[in-house]
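QA checklist item 7 of 12: single-chain prediction sanity check.
[x] sequence parsed
[x] length recorded as 376
[x] structure emitted
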Amino acid sequence: MEPTNGDDNKPQSHEQEPLPLRNADSAPAPEQVLESASQAPIIQENIGGKPSEETPSDCERKKFGEFERLSLRWARLNAVFVGLTLFAITGTAVVFWDQFKEMSSQTDILAIAARQARRDSAESSANAARQLSIAQEQAKAAQDSVNAIQRQTEIGARPWLELSKIAITGGMTIDINGEAHSQVYVVATNVGKTPAREVSLWVELGERSTERQEIRRLCTMNVPTPKDAGKYGQILFPTKTLGEEETQTISIKLRQLTLVERKPAGTGYSESFRWDKGGPPPSQEQFIYPIPSSVIGCIQYKSFTSEALYYTGFVYELLPLIKGREMFGYNIHFDRKTKKATDIPATITQENGTVTIPLDWLRLTQNRGWGNDIVK
């Protein structure tokens, strides 16, 4: 009886089975084995035994590794922090840039709006100025139309006073001081359709080259106020006259003439004169005065519907008649020492330094140069 395989029942041995052997030809030589053994590192493996003790160099390597790990950790944290900071800075910069672009756009919009507003304002101002100018022109045209209507109404309804009569009624006296006097008859008539109030009549003797200024002075003199001359002053109704029954004394203070040249002429002599602002020099032996050259005057009045001052001015030339001939002018000479007139005709009388020119020497004519009346 063949024994059964009892290997299954035998306890397993812990002994390892021998490794197969190489051939003698393929096995390395002993010298090669020793050399390889000397070059190969010796690895000690502690299997199932106590752990080997750490050497000081191993501890140092371990500590250095922990420091490196800590440094690496902090480096990573710093990198993260720097990254976050950079991200925050970048985000802030982006926000600020967006805000800057928005502000720039808003500024551009405001600038455009301001320019448009200025243009609109300029156009509005120009339109307003044009409209104002048009309105002013229309208002002026309307006012001119109203004034024209008022003038037409006023001209048709206001009083009009004219100088209806004038005449010299007496001789003229001139003294050594240049004071000249005469008498005149002057009549004013209301030829308008309404009464005139505060009527005044001013008449004076005139001197050549000053008539215009003197008339304007007379026509702009202050008229008597109602307080001084009654409620309405002198009233003159239509067709009525003023001064019909009276004469007025008129006068003037004559300026002395400076003798420029005297030379023989025919049986007598001719002289040339001028008016000096300060009068003739003291060395002149004579006081020389020209006879007054005109009678000037002005009639002032107002209407009952207006406070405007109306006036009628007049100038009549006074020409002496010598030997039946009108003379453009005649001068009276007074001797400085004797106070008497010299070289005067026999018809001119003198007494106590005053000469009297007879009435038949004097003649009034309308002014030949610039008319008789000055009317407003």
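[x] summary fact logged: The chain is about 35% helix and 30% strand.
[ ] second reviewer sign-off
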